[in-house]
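tokens incoming
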């Protein structure tokens, strides 16, 4: 069915199954996220798994041409998989046939998704911050593990306040102007670093604004903003559940970059998240020095694809797997990864100089 066609009973069961089977309540695995994607992606669907005629699980996906499927929200979703009753046993290839898919592609499959893990071709660390002990406990840990980082960020915080204006932090900012500014900053950052501008894709832009207006226990858009005086200097938009905050789109004003407003914002968000009852802050897959300093541990996410014998699956393999193999080869070799990032940044600078 289309995500919009799920009944209130379906939504309640999905949420209950997820709470029963998942180690963390990641908002990307909520029914509300699938419904939001369904409003911007025409191929969004949810397969309902039944046992003895009763619903016992949900498999969200997107269907394209030739039955080529992908995880719902692929490209922006940081947690993927199915939500199944623990006593239900499903043959993955039968699930694909029933969903009229020739392939199902994923790049952030969470650990514990045993139905799909045999088809993973790569695994990646997703750093997280454990806040279950409260902010004071976390800050003490940070002071032990990354004392210089914490000290320098606090010093930058004071410099920013002296030079630009008194700091004001809003954990849940509802001003639409702040969201528009964040999107513009992030879009410029993608272009500057030679990466594909996600916000140039209309569906991603629309999805973010839909989620910004979503407010449910399992999935709420959360815009956090840091002001110096009346000036917005850094912002972040992510998704939260009752106990998990997923980092998604952080950015800052480059004109005040010497004062590290992004790092100051991160610390403010962490403190406010702990006060709001967040137990886990998921920083997301990808390398960044600030993540290394802030994390307390790592989760593992997987990429790969489940394929059936079909022309659509063959087309998928030819179009995706060779490039994925190259990316994995480069990412596992630091000297090649550094060179690749330099090429991307050089391409971004050349693109920005074009009239």
């Amino acid at each position: 069915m289309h995500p919009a066609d799920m009944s209130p009973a379906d939504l309640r069961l999905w949420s209950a199954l997820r709470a029963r089977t998942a180690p963390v309540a990641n908002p990307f695995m909520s029914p509300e996220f699938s419904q939001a994607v369904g409003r911007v992606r025409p191929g969004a669907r949810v397969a309902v798994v039944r046992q003895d005629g009763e619903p016992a699980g949900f498999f969200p996906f997107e269907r394209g041409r030739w039955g080529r499927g992908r995880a719902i929200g692929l490209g922006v979703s940081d947690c993927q998989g199915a939500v199944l009753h623990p006593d239900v046993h499903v043959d993955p290839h039968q699930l694909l046939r029933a969903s009229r898919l020739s392939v199902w592609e994923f790049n952030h499959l969470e650990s514990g998704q045993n139905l799909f893990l045999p088809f993973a071709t790569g695994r990646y660390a997703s750093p997280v911050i454990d806040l279950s002990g409260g902010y004071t406990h976390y800050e003490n840990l940070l002071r032990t593990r990354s004392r210089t980082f914490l000290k320098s960020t606090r010093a930058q915080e004071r410099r920013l306040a002296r030079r630009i204006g008194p700091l004001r932090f809003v954990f849940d900012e509802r001003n639409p102007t702040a969201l528009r500014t964040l999107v513009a900053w992030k879009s410029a950052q993608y272009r500057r670093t030679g990466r594909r501008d996600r916000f140039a894709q209309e569906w991603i832009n629309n999805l973010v604004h839909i989620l910004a207006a979503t407010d449910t226990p399992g999935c709420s858009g959360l815009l956090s903003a840091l002001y110096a005086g009346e000036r917005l200097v850094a912002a972040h938009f992510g998704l939260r559940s009752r106990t998990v905050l997923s980092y998604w789109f952080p950015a800052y004003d480059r004109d005040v970059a010497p004062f590290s407003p992004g790092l100051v914002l991160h610390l403010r968000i962490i403190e406010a998240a702990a006060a709001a009852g967040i137990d886990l802050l998921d920083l997301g897959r990808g390398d960044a020095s600030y993540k290394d300093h802030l994390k307390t541990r790592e989760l593992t996410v997987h990429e790969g694809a489940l394929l059936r014998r079909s022309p659509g699956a063959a087309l998928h393999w030819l179009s995706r797997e060779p490039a994925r193999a190259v990316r994995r080869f480069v990412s596992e070799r630091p000297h090649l990864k550094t060179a690749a990032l330099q090429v991307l940044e050089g391409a971004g600078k050349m693109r920005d100089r074009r009239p």
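note: The radius of gyration is 21 Å.
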